[in-house]
């Protein structure tokens, strides 16, 4: 039963991480359309997007391992 809870918890985490990664992607896209305005924010916004997607990919890998 604890495995089911873990998988359910991972699925919930992935849903949240997916929303966060999608928002980070949109923020990066919006920034790119504003260039050259706010060009100095590129590293910050890109790091946020990178970190959000890295966390999402890691959580998906944990889910795949737990489901195997």
TrEMBL record:
Protein name in UniProt: CCE_0567 family metalloprotein
Task: Give the organism's phylogenetic lineage.
Answer: Bacteria, Pseudomonadati, Pseudomonadota, Betaproteobacteria, Burkholderiales
Coiled coil ranges: 7-34
Q: Which family does it belong to?
A: Belongs to the UPF0437 family.
InterPro entries from the UniProt entry: Helix_hairpin_bin_sf (IPR029012), Put_N_fixation (IPR007774)
**Which UniProt keyword terms apply here?**
Coiled coil, Nitrogen fixation
Q: Does the keyword Transferase apply?
A: no
Q: Does the keyword Coiled coil apply?
A: yes
